[in-house]
Amino acid sequence: MKWLAFALLALCLNSSFAHEVRPGYLELREGSDGAIAVLWKTPMRGDMRLSLVPEFSGHSEALSPVISRQAGGAAIQSWRMRPLDPLRGQTLRIAGLERTMTDVLVHMAFADGTTWTQRLTPTQPAATVSQRESAIAVAGVYFKLGVEHILLGIDHLLFVLALLLITSGGWKLVKTVTAFTVAHSITLGLAALNLVRVPQAPVEAVIALSIVFVAAEILHAREGREGITLRAPWLVAFAFGLVHGFGFAGALREIGLPQGQIPVALAFFNAGVEVGQLLFIATVIAAIAGIRRYGRGQWSPPRWGGLVMPYAIGSVAMFWVIQRVVAF
Fold this sequence. Notes:
Blueprint: H1 2-20, E1 24-30, E2 36-45, E3 48-49, E4 53-56, E5 60-62, E6 67-71, E7 74-83, E8 91-95, E9 104-109, E10 115-120, E11 126-128, H2 135-152, H3 154-167, H4 170-192, H5 200-222, H6 228-231, H7 233-255, H8 262-295, H9 305-326
InterPro entries: Put_HupE_UreJ
Pfam family, one: HupE_UreJ_2
Keywords: Membrane, Signal, Transmembrane, Transmembrane helix
């Protein structure tokens, strides 16, 4: 059983690690007078923040002092400046980014209505501000962010995996995944547009609790007790999907939405989440089919083999419940 203990530890570490690599966000808005309003958000851990500094290749003058505050586990700084050289064509570099494991999303809005959006990473901490950008570029950035968010969101993936185990594929799985998708798309949109606000800490705890619930339902099904998840998994997926949508929205708030391109960014972030989710489901189904095909007649699992996965999922999720409740 050493492999199971290692898997549980790896999942716990991955979950904690995911919260350590939250992205930074840099927004610059040009006024009609040529002045630039800057908003710079960097992740914090306790009272410490990542040592990241945005630097342009051109010269500029400060028009106001830097105002600092803390909100949502991030350090937020704002100030005004006037570039002495045109921003277009300059190179923007996030000094110190190459020594981290996080990303920085940059959004510039110019006085003529055009925008420039770019994602900077430790391997590519600098980029040249282009002369012109379309909504397609914004869509591409947020689509990729959506795919990466779901594939790195271990808690969301464990919930989907638990649903896969209890539905056993087929039309029931299609309805269940559809219900989950519709539900979290609704709350993601409402929360991202600030139409509904829910505290993030309880949301994260309930997300972990949703995994525990479905894992317990799998165990009950193995014992011949038919719970609501076995009878109507799409109802459970829809109910908890609403909560998971608030979790996605919390991640999107940390990234930031570009003003003037909010509908495009939101739509393609959600599309990226769905594509990443489908990729995960397809991978799991293919793995199960491969095991059944090539393992048939060569290896017979023990009777308790069907309990290992739900116990592993439930144990990791219960650890997260306790961890997140204690962090309130």
